[in-house]
Design goal:
It is a single chain. The longest helix is centred in the middle third of the chain and has 15 residues. The protein has five helices and 26 strands. The strands form seven sheets. Strands 1, 2, 3, 4 and 7 form a five-stranded mixed sheet that branches. The protein folds into three domains: about 150 residues, no CATH class; about 110 residues, Sandwich (Immunoglobulin-like), CATH 2.60.40; about 70 residues, Sandwich (Immunoglobulin-like), CATH 2.60.40. It is mainly β. The radius of gyration is 25 Å and the shape is globular.
Length: about 350
Amino acid sequence: MRAAETFVQIPATNGALLALNHAWSLPDPQKEQEAQASGIYPIDRADTPPYLSGNVLGTWLSALRIGRTLYTSMPGEPFPEVSHSLRLHTRGAWSVTLLSKGQDDLGYFYPSWVYPFTAAYGSDHHIFNVAPQAGDQFIEGQLGLIGKIGFTTTTYTPPEQKTTEFGRDAQPGIEALAAPLAADAGRGGRAKLVFEAIYTPPKGSSSRPEGDRVHWRFGDGTGAATGFLDTGQDYGQGGLGPVGKVRTAHGLRPGRYTAVVSAVNTDGQPASWRLPVSVFPRLRVRIVARRLHGSVYRLTTKVRGGRPPALAWRWRFGDGGHADGRPVVRRLASGARISVTVVDSTGTLARASRAL
């Protein structure tokens, strides 16, 4: 496991948000008056250097590597273009996960080329954005950290892509989520994944999927119909939230699959989304003990299945002691009971025990 962090300074251009941040130092009665007058409470965030100096905001970015899995902190709510850029320019990672509102909350952010679209399609994404270039700075900052923790990166040059989907607002959208995206099979030879769909109607439309159902194909020849989470593209749009039962659990045998969710709305417009998921063989562990001399033993493990590499080993001994690491050298009494818990890169745990 490796980690790195950096401090980023953003020249902010949104005077209203800066004023709300500066207002945090006001006495509580004045903050309450400001909230009653404007309907918005001052921003609960440090308003002194290095976190705020004039119009310059300071914030931390962190990147964490666990095996070949990458986690990056996002100081707010990133647009999909941010995650697209990080995944496009990172080499060698099995997955790149963005942790929204990690360490700070600077509202919505996106690459600078996206900014004109946010003002055009009637959302609040430009109202709660501190600076059009903030997304570019966070992408560049994270790519620098990603390179420090052992992944290879390529150069980021905005804009990443030129959008040709000017008619996107007139089309419905659908997304799929799975928890987890990768898992180990259990004792029954399958892993149970939970799937969820999110549906977005065309701008200004209340048209929903026919029958208030979306349709799943899990990639193993089976499928299901479920409800969905309903979102919107318009600022202040109401009537949003869960429609029916939005989640379904499905067991999959070891293998790689592409789950597909699709729907046709009541205006006859189709939408679909493809989601790759993986199931690995059941994680198993066996203890191997070798006497070095006298009562001193070298303990290690044989690990099968799971998603390699194994990431951590936690040993416990009958005398109440414990140790970490794959190979452990320890003095143990004859007949002592030992156990070990191993975790792989899906987060699955496997345990073994034995007596010497």
